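hey team, just a heads up i'm posting the complex here instead of the shared drive bc the drive is being weird again. everything in one block, sequence lines first with there labels, then the predicted structure for the whole assembly after. its two chains so it's a bit long, scroll down
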Amino acid sequence: MIVIEELDIVGQVIAGKVASIFIREKSDKKIELGDLLVAEEIDESYLILQVYNLAYGSQIPPLVRELTAGLKLEGYGGSLEFLDPKLRNYVLAEVKAVARVSETGVRIPKVLPGFFSSVRHLKKEDLRFLEKPPNPVYFGKVRSGSKILDVDVYLDGKEVFTHHIFIPATTGRGKSNLVKVLLWSVLGQNKFGILVLDPHDEYYGRNGKGLKDHPDAKTDLKYYSSKPFAGANTLVINLKSIMPWHMDGIVEFTDPQLDAIHLCYEEHKDNGGEWIAAIVRGEEVEGVNPRTLNVLQRRFKTIFGLWVNERGDLLCRNEAFSNSAGESTTSDIVQALEKGKIVTIDTSRLTDKAELLVGSIVINDILSRYQNYKGEGKLEDKPVVSVVIEEAPRVLGIDVLQNQGDNIYSTVAREGRKFKIGLLAISQLTSVIPTTILTNMNTKIILGNEMATERHAVINSAAQDLTEDDRAIASLDKGEAILSSIFANFAVPIQIPLFEDYIKGAKEGDKFSLRKEDKVLFR
Amino acid sequence: MEKLEVETFSRAMDICIERKVDFILICGDLFHVGIPDLAVVKEAVTKMREVREDGIPIYAIYGSHDYTPTGTSIIDIIESAGLLVNVVKGRVDEGKLKLDFVQDERTRAKLVGISARKIGLESKYYEILDREILEREEGFKIFAFHSGLDEFKPDYLSQMETVPISFFPRGFDYYAGGHIHDRSENNLPGYERVVFPGPLFTGYARDLERTAKGEKRGFYIVDFDDKITGLEFVEIRLVNGVYFGYDVTGQNSLQAQKDLKEKISQLDVKGKMVVLRIRGELSGGKTSDMNFPNLQEMLLQGGAVYVHLNRFGLTSREYTAIKSAGEDLTTIESRLFQDNIGSVNVSVPGLQSDLGAKLSQDLLRSLRGEPKTNESKRDYEVRLRENALELLQLGEVLED
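-- predicted structure starts here --
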């Protein structure tokens, strides 16, 4: 027996076919684009329907409607009204069934709702199946049209992070806010080691609210910057930590240059490892044309921001590279990731290439360690590692991969899953990323995008069929998103909370106070 | 070893007197432990008094080894005697650690510092340190510390707990570091000269090995007026070192012993400190079959002043790696003994199988016993020995 309270009914199924079901809207109700509706079935199961198009319907022939409008507009019939207007004119909602919920669980719907069945708005209770998983990553609340339901959306981080997350959106749609919310929700769990390459220095919250305000930030968040504040780590990487293969696919070299690099590396690797310093200082390398070395010297100076002063000291403009300090920086970062901490690296003062190189050095190291762990059977005990990379086409773009070959980021995108390493890639452009990589990104958080080409690229690689959602994606407001994931029962429309609101009420971390026995030290 | 260490310290002090330095700054760990052997203290204090009598002040901070459970260490006693000045002065005011400078009378140099605390606890002090006051201070400034620094620690020490340099006040003329046993001169923007001299000598295995391989040990003499004008590392080498590494892999214990003896006999060790490192997997026999005291004796008879033997990496094929997991230490130990007791070939039933495993665990627990309050070292040793003999039921046998 279908029991929908009369007051709840918003419409009735009147026609259609799979993925295109028509519902007539009840006159005093409003159905919005993106609304989630429910059509109940006799066996207590129900279908969740999503509105993707709205149109007018009328029983009055178009010519009559046009004439009536003319009469009213031109002043011939001020009091002219249709007979039973609520009955004769209405709104038609075009919907698709996104999920069928029954006693046995949630399935992709393979049936149509009962013909002429009543539909109502989705309620909190209808989504009881959206449970909090054991390793929760928070995305926001379920959104039905513009209405926000008090239902939190979580996915299991161990699954979503290893299977890569992709966030496509244009500027101003709330990407940074989303990433902050997401990272905040996993900080302190110690189950995910997350490397955040932060070109805008916005996640840590150096100036304003950010991850640093998390109660567990003191122990589980590390921040590296070439201009650190008191207590932060200096982003300084020793040039000896950089290997030729760290630049693979990130910096383009000619074959003679590559030969020179390898020769120089071989010459220095067992002798202090200062091969980059040697090239920048202009030292000769046996068997290498001096002109090639000159070009390399110039390029290295630009990439790393290096220069040699009159005393012969090697200096770095962006202060992120050094030939004396930072020997253990990479190891420190990798160890923090292995302990399930979040490591944010402020790369705002680095060039594009330098930023990608810093990431490459760390990812190469962690990937190699995780490969070893897998070989030794220890990988299961290790936390999942994820790398947050903005403007992903810099390393995942078709042209980059074609011209420069694979890099460590594309390697992770293709193979990282085997070793519990994933990407969290953010991009304004989706169409420039190869489909093979896009389809590997099994969770997409789709924010508003006004560019049709980009929307189509996202839709074509989504985990669920979003063919009909083009218009809905175009109309997504700031903070609204569609979560499409192979780990979600359906593409869930979500409202991402404003970070500042989300963290309200968070407990403050422990404040340090000097212990009695320590006071003796400062007499 | 102790003698060498004391002599090295004396030599360093002598050099300071000879070179007429204005003052000495010791950045922690003057001794290995908070309450060292009094004979060593006597030697050190005598030398320090000599330095003080020559008009050279000694400044210091606490190192990580300068603490005692009671809170008073030998450094405090030496300071009370007026032989050195602890430069860590300050107070916690409204949650901020406000440090006061100690000014050297002759040079007008201003010294300030933060002592070490047990395993990295000093980072808490840095968190509340009022850097601004220190940075505002005019004049020639020295910051003394006893911590590893994230930015300058060698890669092999990446597991070590360290602090980021951003905790330090910027713009000092010299950052004098202790704790790290590798010598290094470093700089980063805002921190012009961060110097770790490393130990004068050393008492630890890895340091000994490096010293034997030729690493220079010593201290720095810094010249300055308003700014630093010179930085000189003064090496102290009382004895030369010999390092001998030997891999036993592929040999059984007898072969290895024989070959080692032969090779060692060819070493020139007269008047030298010898570090002998034996590693690898024996193809037969046990590691305990090898007569290490004999090898050490040979080297000493050959004239070596000190022999350090490192056999940490030595295993035998007769043992296999044992992995064990458990809820607590007792469970893990119990499983380890039970799993491994079968490889011990003894005929006494009480030492076999479960009985043997239980006895081993009881013995371990007994030997792990802590000294009682006010118990002398001798009484403690006697008690441990008696307990062990009782467990092994050997008391009467030995009495006989």
